[in-house]
Amino acid sequence: MATTFYMIRHGETEWNHLRRIVGQGNPTLNETGRRQAAATAEWLAGLKLEIIYTSDLARARETAEIVAGVMPGADIRSDRRLREKDAGVATGMPWEEARDGFPEYHEAMRRDPLNTRPEGGESVADQVARVVEALDEYGARHPGQAVGVVTHGGVIRCALMRAMNLTMAQINQLDPDNCSLTVIEWGEQMMVRTLNSLPDPRRHHRG
């Protein structure tokens, strides 16, 4: 029996706003991010989720708490496996500086985007493995139920990669907006019911 995952990307942080690589850095939501989370919470208030799993990083945890605020009794559980991909030495750097500062890494990424690791970080394959492990575990624990998952853009892409059997080239075209909703039926038969849906149009940044 499939489990329905309501996957929500966290709200905006100042690092997102400044176009810095966030990775497993730990900035909190900025005021825009808190407004985004509140708007998404109001939009989803009728769901009445009983359990919400969240990345333990501050931006996701705060978003989860705002969403849970409109769902009395919702249990929030943190899980490190729902963290964004570890960007290693590039964490906190502006995207343009990181692109120009690590040419060997970007050349390796062109050759093998799934398995290349930045210095001190992890590969996409590493992230996919931990994300799928976590989602499979939640599915086994909550068959037939609706489960909230508040996390990061990269984690949602990993889930979509598994659910839709996508290649790296295809997954790189997906960039979930801050506080967007993606709904996946997770089980033997996968189905994506909603992809990157928002209560109102918003700009987005990776991380």
Helices, strands, pairings?
Blueprint lengths: L2 E7 L4 H4 L13 H14 L6 E4 L3 H11 L6 E4 L16 H7 L1 H9 L12 H18 L4 E6 L1 H12 L3 H4 L9 E6 L4 E7 L10
Parallel strand pairs: 1-4, 2-3, 2-4
Antiparallel strand pairs: 1-5, 5-6
Strand adjacency order, main sheet: 3-2-4-1-5-6
Assign the structural class, choosing from mainly alpha, mainly beta, alpha/beta, alpha+beta, or little secondary structure.
alpha/beta
CATH superfamily: Phosphoglycerate mutase-like
Q: DSSP helix count?
A: 8
CATH top level is Alpha Beta
Describe it.
It contains 8 helices and 6 strands; from the N terminus they run E-H-H-E-H-E-H-H-H-E-H-H-E-E. The protein is of the alpha/beta class. The protein has one domain: Phosphoglycerate mutase-like (Rossmann fold, 3-Layer(aba) Sandwich), CATH 3.40.50.1240. It has a 6-stranded mixed sheet. A hairpin with a 4-residue loop joins strand 5 and strand 6. Helix 2 runs parallel beside helix 3 and helix 6 packs across helix 7. The chain is globular and about 50 Å long.
Name the features:
6 strands; six-stranded mixed β-sheet; 207 residues; single chain; alpha/beta; 8 helices; Rossmann fold
Task: Briefly characterize the structure.
The protein has 207 residues and is of the alpha/beta class. The protein has helices at 14-17, 31-44, 58-68, 95-101, 103-111, 124-141, 153-164, 168-171; strands at residues 3-9, 51-54, 75-78, 146-151, 181-186, 191-197. The chain has a six-stranded mixed beta sheet.
